[in-house]
Amino acid sequence: MKSLFCLLLIVTISTTTIMAQTKVKQTAGREQLGDFAPKFAELNDDVLFGEVWNRTDKLGLRDRSMITVTALVSMGITDTSLKYHLQSAKNNGITRTEIAEALTHIGFYAGWPKAWAAFRLAKEVWTDNTDAADAKAAFEQEMLFPIGNPNDAFAQYFIGQSYLAPLSQEQVGIYNVTFEPRCRNNWHIHHATKGGGQILVCVAGEGWYQEWGKPAQLLKPGDVVNIPQGVKHWHGATADSWFAHLAIEVPGEKGNNEWLEAVSDEEYDKLTSNE
User: Fold this and answer.
1) Can you give the residue range of the structural domain that contains 83?
2) What's the alpha-carbon Rg for the chain, to the nearest Å?
């Protein structure tokens, strides 16, 4: 099922969509100092955050967050500004494990008391319930495409948590669909009077694809699945791996999806025993 089409598609999309990171926008300067020090507020909001932080073609937000946290802790600044940048670091994909290791490393060079103070704030940002968030952030680092937002609009047709990131909605619909471990969608059929169907391009992790009446196929990055219209099937993650694929809508006439029964735990667990 592997195809050069996968590589060509990824290269094309990554240069147009994925390399563009979320723009940083700051208003704290004007809100807190706009009347008292308008020039300082302007430099803070428009230059430091508006320009320097947004030079992501030179250095990504994740790296900028780690550098900023290191600089603040080294100077002994452990007030609300550090907490703000710790929260930004978390939002930019730095996990609890990574920040703990970074602060430990900083402590040897900048001073043990400074690291202790920074850890108190870090524990407030990376709370005890962030294990799943850490796993999600780590998985997102494995692939070119963003995980996107929780797939709430289709949650009723999934078992477990999935995420959806629209990559292209012009000419051909292309979506990055991410599944947490054990997450899968229901059996379903793509209908169309002419053309139609779907193509899956696997980009990260491991998952399953199964057509009605056929054995399930284990999917890995680089695999491509062509799904004709009218074929009953399902797809999702393996039991111990996150999984992401691009879902490409094949143009057709009068296309629609028919959602059917869920893939039961009993059916699913029969597959996991053969991984």
Assistant:
1) 56-140
2) 23
Residues 91 and 72 in one domain: yes
Q: Which helix (H) or strand (E) holds 267?
A: helix 265-272
Q: Is 235 helix (H, G, I), strand (E, B) or coil?
A: strand
CB atoms within 10 A of CB 247: 17
Secondary structure string (H, E, C) spanning 140-202: HCCCCCCCCEECHHHHHHEECCEEEEEEECCCCCEEEEEECCCCEECCEEEECCEECCEEEEE
**Same domain? 136 vs 160:** no
Q: Rounded to an integer, what is the distance from CA 173 to the centroid of its chain?
A: 19
The answer on 250 and 174 residing in a single domain is: yes
Angle at 14 between CA 55 and CA 155, to 5 degrees: 105
pLDDT single digits (tens) 154-209: 999 999 999 999 998 888 889 999 999 999 999 999 999 888 889 999 999 999 99
**Four-CA torsion 184, 186, 192, 198, nearest 10 degrees:** 10
Tell me how far apart the alpha carbons of residues 57 and 93 are, in angstroms, rounded to a whole number: 17
DSSP-assigned states of every residue in 60-114 = -HHHHHHHHHHHHHHTT--SHHHHHHHHHHHHTT--HHHHHHHHHHHHHHH-HHH
d(CA 170, CA 26): 31
Instruction: Of 174, 173, 175, 179, give the one whose Cα is nearest residue 165.
Output: 175
Final residue before a domain boundary, out of 107, 122, 140: 140
Q: Residue 105: what residue type?
A: H
Domain boundary among 84, 108, 140: 140
* Beta-bridge partner residues of 236: 184, 208
Residue 214 within any structural domain of the chain: yes
Reported pTM: 0.54
Q: Are residues 164 and 268 in the same domain?
A: yes
| Tokens at 202, concatenated | 């696997």
